[in-house]
Design brief:
Elements (H helix, E strand, L loop, with lengths): L1 H23 L5 H11 L1 H13 L2 H7 L4 E13 L5 E17 L1 H69 L4 H36 L23 H11 L1 H21 L5 E12 L10 E12 L7 H67 L5 H35 L5 H8 L5
Antiparallel strand pairs: 1-2, 2-3, 3-4
Helix pairs in contact: 1-5, 1-10, 2-5, 3-5, 4-5, 5-6, 5-8, 5-10, 7-9, 8-9, 9-10
């Protein structure tokens, strides 16, 4: 009997040590992971190239409003057949200069280009914020998978001891075959849980490695105590107001609407006249032919040209209707995004408060589970509780530890998520959270 009691205590100590091992093994912390992600994340790199492409919109849009000049060189060989038979060379050049005076579609195109440049900058800033959020999510998901695996291993070890004890009692006649079947089923279920937890851990670490671009073996866990800070300001409406001005997704939707408006103006310009000033200098040399007045010819000209569109087969009107529909669609998309941001901000605010309450609740459950295990072990020592009771109490304690850890991860992600939806998230927020990890 004493030997059996010793093995039960050994299981409890071993399982607890297994849960603590992940906390004692310090690996890369959140800030180190984020630094690697900034350097190697393909998504951020793609966003950077898109920003570079978008920054070229303004120079291209401005170019259409600036003067342009061209030089044309020409050299020909001419063969005369009638009334005489002769050959001579003919060459020259033409220097042309054109100044757009009024092209409404080009003016609107330039305005659209400036908005496209802003969109490129905002989109990259949104990608940076998304990487901060994504890194934190993957980091704490990976830590959670470690906790889940440690819980599954501890449960399997406990069920192993229960199965051994049941076999021993069956041999001496103090247990029945039904007890053996129950113990075996519990062990098989625990073993399945370990396999599932290992797969989950592997998948989440691979997801993290996809962002950082290199293998990750260990992660720095959270400290035993972290500050629980409520949202500041404390009024949810203040967060909603801030989100409507700072949220980058909403800002992108607003820019899309402004770009669509400029596009509609540019399409309407197909009904308007276009005015240009053109200057040209030409020179030609037809050679010296005694039969004709050959020689050179020079000319200069300045032209003011106005082009008034009269009829284009209803093509312009169709483009205007199409652009107007695009403008209306962008307006509706902006309004839909605004409503989503408001809802997400309110959800995020409530999520932080709920996460704090959940941490406090799981902390109390953890204390109760610890006390219950101690009472159950004492009852087993006195012979009034069974080994099954002890193992069940152990499982409840491990589950309470896991739930408490996950509640803490949830609080951190909710806090970061609230700032993200409000458009206030930066890498400095990640650095502040990183101080809560063990160094």
């Amino acid at each position: 009997m004493n030997k059996t009691r010793f093995s039960i205590r050994e299981v409890a100590i071993t399982a607890s040590m297994m849960l603590l091992t992940s906390s004692a093994a310090h690996g890369e912390d959140l800030w180190q992971i984020y630094t690697l992600a900034v350097q190697h994340d393909a998504g951020l790199a793609v966003a950077g190239e898109k920003k570079t492409m978008g920054m070229e919109a303004v120079p291209q849009g401005l170019a259409s409003l600036l003067p342009n000049a061209s030089l044309t060189l020409q050299q020909s060989a001419v063969s005369l057949q009638k009334p005489i038979h002769d050959q001579y060379g003919q060459g020259g050049y033409a220097l042309n200069f054109q100044l757009p005076v009024f092209h409404w579609e080009k003016i609107q195109g330039y305005q659209q280009a400036k908005k496209e440049e802003k969109r490129a900058l905002v989109a990259y800033a949104a990608a940076e914020q998304a990487l901060v959020m994504r890194t934190a999510q993957l980091y704490y998901d990976a830590l959670s998978s470690i906790d889940t695996l440690q819980f599954a291993l501890a449960e399997k070890e406990a069920m192993t001891q229960r199965l051994k004890s049941t076999k021993a009692r069956l041999e001496v006649g103090t247990a029945v075959m039904t007890d053996m079947h129950d113990a075996q089923a519990a062990f098989d279920l625990a073993e399945t849980g370990v396999i599932r937890a290992k797969d989950q851990r592997q998948g989440r670490f691979e997801a993290l490695e996809e962002v950082v671009g290199q293998p990750v073996s260990q992660l720095a866990p959270l400290k035993s105590e972290i500050p629980l800070v409520k949202p500041d300001p404390a009024e949810v409406d203040r967060w909603v107001e801030k989100a409507q001005t700072e949220n980058l997704t909403l800002r992108l939707a607003q820019l899309e609407r402004e770009i669509a408006e400029s596009g509609a103006q540019a399409a309407w310009a197909g009904h308007l006249p276009a005015v240009d000033v053109m200057a040209a200098h030409t020179y030609s040399d037809s050679g010296a032919l005694p039969q004709f007045d050959g020689g050179t010819l020079r000319s200069n000209s300045v032209t003011v040209q106005m082009t008034l569109p009269l009829y284009a087969g209803q093509g312009v009107s169709s483009k205007v209707r199409q652009a107007k529909a695009g403008e209306s669609m962008a307006q509706q998309a902006e309004e839909m995004t605004r409503r989503q941001v408001i809802r997400q901000t309110r959800d995020g605010y409530r999520g932080v408060l709920s996460a704090i309450a959940q941490i406090q609740a799981t902390r109390q459950v953890l204390r109760s589970s610890q006390s219950n295990l101690e009472t159950t072990e004492a009852g087993y020592e006195a012979g009034i509780r069974t080994m099954t009771d002890v193992l069940a109490s152990q499982r409840e304690l491990f589950r309470a530890k896991r739930d408490h850890a996950q509640a803490r991860y949830g609080y951190i992600l909710q806090t970061i998520g609230l700032k993200h939806v409000a458009g206030l998230l930066s890498d400095q927020d990640l650095k502040a959270v990183n101080a809560w990890n063990q160094n």
